[in-house]
Amino acid sequence: MSSEVLQRFHPLFYPRSVAVVGATDNPFKLGFHALSAVTSSGFEGEVYPVNPGAGESIQGLRAYRSISDLPRGVDLFVYAIPARQVIPSVREAVEMGGNAGVIFAGGFRETGTEGGLLQEELIGIANAGGMKLIGPNCIGVVNKQARLNATFASPLAWFPQGNVSVVSQSGGMGNSILNEIMDEQVGISKFVSIGNRANVEFADMVEYLAEDPDTAVICLFIEGLDDGAAFLEKARLASRRKPVIVYTRGYTESSSRAALSHTGSVASSESVYRGAFRQAGLLQVSSSSEMACVAKAVAMGAVPEGPGVFISTHSAGPVVAICDICERAGLRFPPLQPHIAEAIAGFIPEHAVAANPLDMFAFAWTDTSLYLKAADLALAQDDIHCAVSVFVTGGGAGPVFPAREYAEIGRKHGKPAFICLVTPWALASDIADAQQQGAVAFSSPEKMGSVLVNLHHLSGLRDEA
Amino acid sequence: MSSEVLQRFHPLFYPRSVAVVGATDNPFKLGFHALSAVTSSGFEGEVYPVNPGAGESIQGLRAYRSISDLPRGVDLFVYAIPARQVIPSVREAVEMGGNAGVIFAGGFRETGTEGGLLQEELIGIANAGGMKLIGPNCIGVVNKQARLNATFASPLAWFPQGNVSVVSQSGGMGNSILNEIMDEQVGISKFVSIGNRANVEFADMVEYLAEDPDTAVICLFIEGLDDGAAFLEKARLASRRKPVIVYTRGYTESSSRAALSHTGSVASSESVYRGAFRQAGLLQVSSSSEMACVAKAVAMGAVPEGPGVFISTHSAGPVVAICDICERAGLRFPPLQPHIAEAIAGFIPEHAVAANPLDMFAFAWTDTSLYLKAADLALAQDDIHCAVSVFVTGGGAGPVFPAREYAEIGRKHGKPAFICLVTPWALASDIADAQQQGAVAFSSPEKMGSVLVNLHHLSGLRDEA
């Protein structure tokens, strides 16, 4: 099966050639942005601009007046054309042996009965020709591994390459999630905005990404499902192989109206979803930022194997916040064993108490080696499953947390070592540096607490499975 | 009263002269960082480094071997010395006519009975001499209006000047809140880390900031209160003059332990606090980021006068998320009046429905004037109290939201105009640009939704008062 699903969607994610239908030199048209997105991402396959009104070239590439002028067997067709032109154009692509398509236009199922019929017709044509369609009513597909940006948004190619994949019903929310992932300084693998889901559903993408060797964690933004059972079946299988994180919205009256006019989804009740998702082993989060933070920890291999946290700091306030968030969710800050407490008492400053949480006052800010000694001792304790060091970064003007040595201590004990590196975005490079050195860092106590809670839930899901 | 409280704390916030006791040339000591924080912030008053072991100068400034060598009447003493030296040093400062002090050292009330007695002695000396003490066990005071950075953290001077003031029990959490405020691209006025609260309490700072003409909104991080009644009385008076936002932590067993070893606070139960704070008219938030976002809206004068929101977009997903968050908190998305709907129907694209939420599809992304027309029409409707435009920014590579014209429309109708400008931090300058043009922008749908909810709660508090 593995190779089957990877093969089925290979032309979509790894096309040898891409045709941009509706490509143009006019920057006020979507077709302009669609073509420049494909050409500016470093994609190395053939690119064919198609426009009936074209001259010799579009954006410097040889132009084609019709799909029938193209070589046979173009892998991926990107449709930057109005809804009414989509059906004949997809029919042509199928006749020319096209394998996959991305359709940006709205005007299908989300607009009511008539649009629904159009979408049915579209699905019939695509299915008959074995063509997989992303959309309609979407922003398309990005695959960093193939340097493919089959959207109309060039900036999507800026996101660094990594192993987090995102499938979103909404292009805008997908973008928001990608933004948060980029802000967490990790990279993406595949991004799919699936919109109206003509003949590619969440179930398909989850099945694909579960097999995809370049995806370590699957992130889904869902407004509504047509075939919940099919999705849950694939999701259950996927979550046994790698973490699947789900963020759902559309549960109120006004948001349902927005969702309906959007991708034609009718939301179920929140509680029905929650229960079913949990049973399928999916981790549920409630914001783009939360999703990005937990995806980062997973992508970096930092999933604690139990609820015990050791936390040390030079500033107690952030620890108060982190403990508040964690303890309520069932995480624990186990007391230190006497011999460990004694060893720690040997080097912490006067007035400091060798306990967990461990507050070493401002001394630890100037002498950061105290963090390393404390973590090395505490991580040896059986009921402690990860270390968290809280450090308020001073940028170039202050001391720097020894992330490399700290990460090394985590590896030595086989337990995650996190840093809550309290940082404004002006100093985000401190986070990036710490992560390049192997430690997983979060910029605020609330993010740090929320990540620990979500990782704890993730362990719970694994234990239940 | 106004002038009395401003005068009482004038030497603390607007000192003519600052002595840094424990100043040194050794960068591994706090006294090094304390002196360089004062001298690198642009402070224009006299600065006196004091160290018994000093030579002629410290960091290029004339050095003093003892406080008694200083000119009489130095306004502010910054103590970067160990706890055991603090009491004699404060006594000397009082004798030399010192008016205010900042004490970084821990080792007082937070360490137990003995430390508590030390703190009592300290308070006695300061009170007898009329000296106001911030701390002990704190990171100090920043006043952007006076270019004063009386902390040991030079980077705190980087925060831009504005009208948001922050008082935090914890230096680290204070820093986290300042970071989030900076990330929201607004500026601060006063920052006070009050630590153990020797003789300056939250009540004093709230009273001061309520009168301070440079403070538009007061942000408090509280772990515990000694005299709740005194605080609530001052807070009630303050919240009638300007919004007071409170973030509290320390409600669980592990976090209480951390808080106790921290600034010697014993937390009450959460529900007791919540009820009392609400009665006093304080807006309660649950994260640094939430605090910064709502403070920004208030600081920019964007507080809607009712629950009616008009929201328009080119991408429905973020609107689904915003509506979900808002509707649950009692906000409303009123149906458009027929004549307004009709006018909007005249320019929105085929398939779009002239409703609220208003989805104009990708057309509005390329033709951003649709947002302006829609907001201008909708804001004329009585039961609509603010406009929210959702726009996924493409940086330099895509269209730019017309923030100036949009802000102008808001002003014309006397109603706030928000942009949910879905943006990664790499494009944070888009947020800054929009705000310089007068529109209030948030980078994610969750932040946008949360701000609207908090502003709605703020109106509720005002109506109750």
What count of domains describes the coordinates of chain A? 3
Mean pLDDT of chain A: 93
Classify the oligomer.
homodimer
Q: Strand content of the residues of chain A, in percent?
A: 15-25%
* Uncertain ranges of chain A: none
Main CATH class of the largest domain in chain A: Alpha Beta
List the chains of the largest interface with their residue counts: A-B, 92 and 92 residues
Query: Helicity level of chain A, as a percent range?
Result: 40-55%
The CATH superfamily of the largest domain in chain A is identified as Succinyl-CoA synthetase domains
Tally the helices of chain A: 18
How can the largest sheet of chain A be summarized? 7 strands, mixed
Number of strands of chain A: 19
Q: Assign the structural class of chain A, choosing from mainly alpha, mainly beta, alpha/beta, alpha+beta, or little secondary structure.
A: alpha/beta
**CA gyration radius of chain A, whole angstroms:** 25 Å
Note down, in words, how this protein is organized:
The structure is a homodimer of 465-residue chains. Chain A is of the alpha/beta class. Chain A has 3 domains: 1-138, NAD(P)-binding Rossmann-like Domain (Rossmann fold, 3-Layer(aba) Sandwich), CATH 3.40.50; 159-299, Succinyl-CoA synthetase domains (Rossmann fold), CATH 3.40.50; 302-464, Rossmann fold (3-Layer(aba) Sandwich), CATH 3.40.50. Helices cover 42% and strands 18% of the residues of chain A. The first copy, chain A, has 18 helices and 19 strands. Chain A has a 7-stranded mixed beta sheet, with helices on both faces. A 5-stranded parallel beta sheet of chain A has the order 2-1-5-6-7, sandwiched between helices. In chain A, strand 8 (140-143) and strand 9 (148-150) form a beta hairpin. In chain A, helix 6 packs across helix 11 (288-299) and helix 12 runs parallel beside helix 18. The longest helix of chain A is centred in the C-terminal third of the chain and has 20 residues, at 445-464. Chains A and B meet through helix 6, helix 9 and helix 12 of A and helix 6, helix 9 and helix 12 of B.
